[in-house]
Amino acid sequence: MHNVCKHRGTQLIKDRRGNIKNMITCPYHAWSYHLDGRLRHAPRHETMSGFSMDDWGLSKVRIEEFAGFYFINFNSEATSLVDDIPGAFEAMAPYFPDLNNIEFIEEVDMLVDANWKVIVDNAIEGYHFKLSGPHHKDLAALINFDKYELNAHGKWWDFKGPPIPTTTAFGEKVKDQTYQTDWFYNIQLWPMTTIYAFPYADAIGTFNEIPIGPEKTLLRFGHYIPKNRPQNKLSKAAIKWFNEKLGPEDIDLNLYVQRGLRSSGFDQGRYMIDSDRSSNSEHLVHHFHSLVYSALNNDN
């Protein structure tokens, strides 16, 4: 349900997460709601002629479950997420063997002064991995780019690369560590959700690009670990490295692009797409742009 009182539009719940035991009460005028959204009580409603409790329940949104995560859709007429992404779960499952047995450990929000599509563009190509900042190069050193694949499947796409054998990753020893996968694996669900695993890290990450304005995006990261295994040093180091090293480096690249897009010296760019659709090809960027174009023109 929408987190807003039907009386005067007050935000009902301040906390990001938690449990509500009995009812939802507005902090402004104490309108209260049952947990299914029905109006329970509105002070002085008995003085109002024709006031019906049934007319003032909370507004509801669509919720769908996929791979243990919940997805919200404000459009009641939209197609089902699961129908839009056939084959996605089967593709991702081998890289997340503990997907049905994970627990949330942290959420990190970052406000980025860039359009959400700029951020998606950056996330779906390997062209810049060996060419931009030092932390991208550190990640690239763990991946066999000769066998790196970027594949489009309609409204979902994934990119993956087998590991380069190593003794250390993210500053920790690899030997005797447990991990979800030793591959680099990302799956993205149209339009803005990513689920990923870094090589040798016993953690699952998510991030969403949430538009706030034309040049502002809330970038929300989440990290999850298996319930049946304590978080090891390498996984802690991988999450810390992502939050403090790779993530900020990517955000800087997004800011540089957004600033450049304002320039009169730039009109339109050039996709670098090779015939082999190799690890350096930008074919997923073109695929994403095609989906955006279709959505803006009501073609899908």
Polypeptide structure, described:
With 300 residues, the protein is an alpha+beta fold. The chain folds into two domains: 60 residues, 3-layer Sandwich (Rieske Iron-sulfur Protein); 217 residues, Naphthalene 1,2-dioxygenase Alpha Subunit, Chain A, domain 1, CATH 3.90.380.10. The chain is 22% helix and 25% strand. The chain has six helices and 14 strands. The protein has a seven-stranded antiparallel sheet. The chain has a three-stranded antiparallel sheet with strand order 1-2-3, with no helix packed on it. It has a two-stranded antiparallel sheet with strand order 4-5. A hairpin with a 2-residue loop joins strand 4 and strand 5. Helix 3 packs across helix 5. The longest helix has 29 residues. It is globular, with a radius of gyration of 22 Å. It starts with 23 loop residues before the first strand and ends with a helix.
Walk me through the topology.
Elements: E1 24-25, E2 32-33, E3 39-41, E4 62-66, E5 69-73, H1 81-84, H2 88-92, E6 102-112, H3 116-123, H4 134-140, E7 149-152, E8 156-161, E9 168-169, E10 172-173, E11 184-189, E12 193-197, E13 204-213, E14 216-226, H5 233-261, H6 283-296
Antiparallel strand pairs: 1-2, 2-3, 4-5, 6-14, 7-8, 8-11, 9-10, 11-12, 12-13, 13-14
Salient structural properties:
300 residues; alpha+beta; Rieske Iron-sulfur Protein; 2 domains; three-stranded antiparallel sheet; 6 helices; globular
